[in-house]
Amino acid sequence: MQNQDPELFDKIRQQYDSAPYPRIPLEQSPKNNYELLFIHNLVTSYYLKYQKVINTQGKVILDAGCGTGYKSLVLAEANPGAKIVGIDISEQSVELARQRLKFHGFDNAEFYVLPIEDLPQLGYEFDYISNDEVLYLLPDITMGLKGMKSVLKPEGIIRSNLHSAFQRVNYFRAQSLFKMMGLMDDNPTDLETGLTGEIMEALKDQVLLKSQVYKPQTSTEKEWVLVNYLLQGDKGYTIPELFAALKTSDLELISMVNWRNWEVIDLFKDAENLPAFLGMSLPELSIEDRLHFYELLHPIHRLLDFWCGHPITNESIVPVSNWTDTDWQTTQVHLHPQLKTSKAKEDLIECVKTQKPFEISQYVKLPTIVPITLESRRAACLLPLWETEQPMISLVERWQQIQPVDPVTLEPITPPIAFEQVKELLISLDAFLYVLLQRSGSN
Q: Quick check: 41 and 76 in contact, CB under 8 A?
């Protein structure tokens, strides 16, 4: 960044030196923010790519663009035993990040004032790189991606994001307006941030720009103004531009971070009764085209938030839906670490005792569209997972004890029937990564 556009680099650095971001109190902890921990846990993205469960102990994780260190703290909480390394171009932000991790008792953390292109100077290779709210500020996003790829382990994963060109278009118009007025010529101060609020407030409410981007509650807050109206270097991208950058960088998309909310089919009134043309063409679309189709129809996501990594070679990933009975019989069932809390376990036991449905999605809502609930007996079948992973067969045997007979016919539940019922339950939960299924031989 620095070598390509020194003036812009300087403006961005000055902006974050004068207004370190994010402005989250030092003492605030993400321990109970399960959705945030779910995203930043290496287990989540690693399972999506490799269909394997990884142990975070001893892993080395980079927060590339750490800011004031709140995401570094999230990474430390979400990945027990991992070493956290943070870099940022703002010296003020890096100092705050050091203080934050120390305050919360994480000693295995290092922070450096460093641009992304200089990452090899650190001498580390990383298992996971979090590059949150940074990539779209670089003049060339492929430079950033290649810089991170150069220090990524062969099985490592990068999480990054870009501003959406479609969702954010009105804010780009506002930025163009304030550039035209000279409010972004230098590092914006209280004077410039105050002027933006005065200008927007003075406009008639029906003026299109005001109706689209002005929020009375936040448009006078300095931090909000700086990251929306006056953000230096801000740019928007489309899905095809993201895929082109990944291809140029020799990286492969793993998944969108909020993958459950990128389903094209969910945008239609009746998924079973689509117009004939769509019914035939949608299933044939590539992943890139399906995501682009979504953003053209419904650009609600501010971020094109994604996981990527080195292209997989000589690795055969078989979808769970295609597993044979032999695969299932040798499967180990894991509970996602962010569900393995004493609170969730206590709630489950209470639901079993009172025979009430167990809402498993209340602890990690992020990837779900509607609440995911389990009938109390089915929930009871999963209880041992709160202690440790379980062989699939053990859960089948437990289910036979919980539900020995068919409640309608009173016929005994045979082992093959119990097997199919547990399999159906696990497939439904695996879709949300509430349980993680690992076949024997996948270690």
A: no
Which among 413, 389, 441, 395 has a CA at the least distance from the CA of 43? 389
Cα Rg of the chain (Å, integer): 24
Return d(Cα 160, Cα 100) in angstroms, integer: 22
- Contact in structure between 174 and 212 (CB atoms under 8 Å): no
pLDDT, position 2: 44
Q: Which strands make up the sheet holding 390-391, listed edge to edge?
A: 390-391, 332-335, 435-438
As a whole number of angstroms, the distance between CA 173 and CA 156 comes to: 37
Report pLDDT digits (tens) over 398-432. Answer: 999 999 998 899 999 999 999 999 999 999 999 99
Position 257 pLDDT exceeds 80: yes
> Secondary structure of 107-126 in the HEC alphabet?
CCEEEEECCHHHHHHHCCCE
Q: Are 333 and 32 in contact (CB under 8 A)?
A: no
Q: How far apart are CA 215 and CA 219, in angstroms?
A: 5
Hey, what are 423's tokens?
Answer: 């399999």
Between the CA of residue 438 and those of 2, 22, 379, 389, 396, what are the distances in Å?
A: 44, 37, 20, 10, 16
The candidate with the shortest Cα–Cα distance to 301, out of 251, 241, 260, is 260
Provide, rounded to the nearest whole percent, the portion of the chain with pLDDT above 70. 93
What is each CA distance from 210 to 2, 191, 198, 213, 272, in whole angstroms?
34, 20, 12, 6, 40
Q: Measure the CA–CA gap between 131 and 71, rounded to whole angstroms.
A: 10
pLDDT, tens digit, 9 for 90 and up, residues 4-41: 566 666 666 566 655 566 788 999 999 989 889 999 99
Reduced to 3 states, what is the DSSP secondary structure of residue 257? coil
Two structure tokens written together for 188: 């914006």
Residue 3: predicted pLDDT: 47
Instruction: Give the integer Cα–Cα distance in Å for 123 and 89.
Output: 18
CA-CA distance, 167 to 228, in Å (whole number)?
13
Record the pTM: 0.91
What 8-state DSSP symbol labels residue 33?
Answer: -
Residues paired with 437 in a beta bridge: 333
Q: Could you please report the per-residue DSSP string of 118-173?
A: GGGGG---EEEEEE-S-GGGSS-HHHHHHHHHTTEEEEEEEEEEEEBTTTTHHHHH
The mean pLDDT of 191-203, rounded to a whole number, is: 93
